[in-house]
Amino acid sequence: MTTLHDVTQAISRFAEGARTRRQLKRELAQLSAMGSLDSVLADVGLVRSQIEPLMAGCTGSRDQLERMLARLGIDPAQLPVETERDMTWTCTTCPDKRRCRKWLAGAGETDFHSFCPNAAQLDDAFAKQHPGGPAVAASPSDYCPTADEIKRMRADTRQREVRAMIDAAL
Question: What does pLDDT average to in each consecutive run of 10 residues of the chain (170 residues)?
Fold first, then answer.
């Protein structure tokens, strides 16, 4: 059941997201006018074509990833920079943010593997940080992806490979 508090939080997130996007658009326009946009984007491992998807999904993505890592017992400081950047990008462009928020609140499914495109990276990070420890949240062997999920995972993998090639070229 949706409460007034839930509605208030949703409105607040929406308003904050709109402010963040407006501010980011202004800053990007300023960098472009100064001729510095491409070099700044290169410094953070991005290209111009990634700006729109980034802005569309930027609201709260980093916070959600940090909450996911914390809930799973993964220390972000121990993650390789490239892994954290890839996971952040995947989270930013994720179509299932609502399911993720529900899961983080404890109201959603019991297994994040059914919706999280970062599930394999999260499992890998957990295994590296907790060798011999229990499986993360739910065993990946219990999860059987649908055909659509497999397509999405393959597309995500291709995106990461393309980003890695672009990063290597820069």
Answer: 76 78 86 90 81 69 87 90 87 85 76 90 90 55 54 70 69
